[in-house]
Amino acid sequence: MAKVTLVEAVTMAMDYELGHDKDVVIMGEDVGINGGVFRATKGLAQKYGEDRVIDTPLAEAMIAGMAVGMATQGMKPIAEAQFMGFIYPMVEHIVCHAARMRNRTRGRLTCPLVIRAPYGGGIHAPEHHSESTEALFAHIPGLRVVIPSSPTRAYGLLLAAIRSPDPVIFLEPKRIYHWSKEEVENDGEEYPLDMCYVIREGEDVTLVTWGAMMKETLEAADKLAEQGVSAEVIDVATVSPLDMDTIAESVAKTGRCVIIQEAARHCSLSSEIAANLADQGLYDLNAPVKRVTGYDVIMPLFKMEKKYMPTTDRILKAVNQVLEVS
User: Fold this and answer.
1) Would you identify the CATH topology of the domain 2-184?
2) How far, in Å, CA of 112 to CA of 161, rounded?
3) Rounded Cα distance, 294 and 307, in Å
4) What residues are labeled active site?
5) Fewer CB within a 10 Å sphere, N or C end of the chain?
6) 312 Cβ partners below 8 Å, 6+ apart?
7) Topology classification of domain 197-324
């Protein structure tokens, strides 16, 4: 069993599927010879050939259009956008075709494709390299949106995404690509989609997060434990469709909830979770739901980036506020 980082787990999952399913192909800018900007496809072109791991021109709309065509004809393309900020030329094909294919053809055609994109801030990259716009895609019926927060879940969720008969947007939080290593068995076992994962059980407050913010959330949970506060930590993992049952069940137990996201606050996934808790679990809440988020501005460049990103201290402040309500 190998001990790997998140990005290495992504590579491992794609390697497994290329080796076990001849219909799987990878395509994108520099994914072949160079192995991708973050080396997520390193060595795969050499192992499987340039007809399975395909270097494309710098043309995101073309990549998405080809992926949709391949998927409707029985292939399982994994298309990479080098950064989430480069995914927008793909949107027409993703929204107008991939997401609608099953409905449009009344089930005669499906669209089993994966769009992979490194996303989020924290690496001091220029504009268009630090987007956290998962809510855009979570709003689109017919799409799954999956965000891993650990090597184990990256491996299992990506396998499930590739095997899904419908399109999946798979967002990889690049800030934690190399944050930690876990033992991941390369056994082809997938993780279930469409569900949240309870990472740590607790009694006093529910912390809900996903992607790179798991790092600060777990740090906050550790500090709370030192203060005698028991925090339950939930990894949303599949942000669409959203598993509200797991979140609501946790809040029914703890009575308090803090939602943590890197993305801007307005019209975000945290807004949706909070609204659902108001609909489904208002009488379970002993305090208003708090949200710790990015700000409603473009991610500031370089020196100001840390000011934008939610911190452990901001999470602790929000938790203390909900605990103060009797």
Assistant:
1) Rossmann fold (3.40.50)
2) 9
3) 9
4) 129
5) C
6) 216, 219, 220, 223
7) Rossmann fold (3.40.50)
